Amino acid sequence: MARSSRRSRRRSGNSAGLIVGAIALGLVSVAIIGAFGWLKYRASSTVAVDKASLCPVTGATSETAILLDVTDPISDTTALDLKNQFQQIVARVPVGGAIDIYSLTEKEGEPERTFHACNPGSGELADEWTSNPRLIQDRWEKGFQKPLEDIAGRLASGKAGDASPIMAGIQRINLEVFSSLPAGTPKALFVASDMIEHTPAFSNYRDGVAYSKFQKSEARDKFRTSLDGVSVKILAFQRPNLKFSAEELAEFWREWITNNNGYFDGFIRLEGKR
């Protein structure tokens, strides 16, 4: 009986070992499957981007547009202040957010688009498990950071012009960039200019800054545009010998923006004067 009991205990011990081993193997398998599933989920949750624009194929998550008015030269001091402001604007564009940069020209409604891309995120934000941080950093530098740095370096290269159709430029940007965006997409417009509208339809030089006079002009209907949901901030160059104050000019543009259903986000007078 004793010998039989020992054999029984030995078989029982072997069975227990097999059970523990099977459980351990099962747990390891579950862990491997779980880790694979987690990596697959992380990879699938990464949104693909368009190779040309670096924008998510599902669409940009926000839109920032900048209108640069260099139809007249600006001082070196103003250019430096503008460059600093420009870099701050770019730095605030979120990953997946688009930025479009236009240069104002003398031709009404024909600003030149000089840049369009989305912020793809730098290599620092890349997931080492599911992507290649070095390739992402290279893509960010070549397709986003470097072109914007080049634009920032040319901000003082304006030439004197005969017209400054700021309203028409804003109208064109609104139609090309903002109007087609899905509802709820954050939209911001920055206008870097002396903000002196000068066209045959209306000119601050000729007609002043009384908004009541503008409302009676041809420009009111010609340049009206629906800025619904668009936040507009002005970075103003200061010009000498004007017949109106910077405060009066700011009020004129506040009225124009709000009368076109936009949100007036401020009028910043850049340093320097020319």
Automatic annotation (TrEMBL):
<keyword id="KW-0472">Membrane</keyword>
<protein>
    <submittedName>
        <fullName>Uncharacterized protein</fullName>
    </submittedName>
</protein>
<keyword id="KW-0812">Transmembrane</keyword>
<keyword id="KW-1133">Transmembrane helix</keyword>
<feature type="transmembrane region" description="Helical">
    <location>
        <begin position="16"/>
        <end position="39"/>
    </location>
</feature>
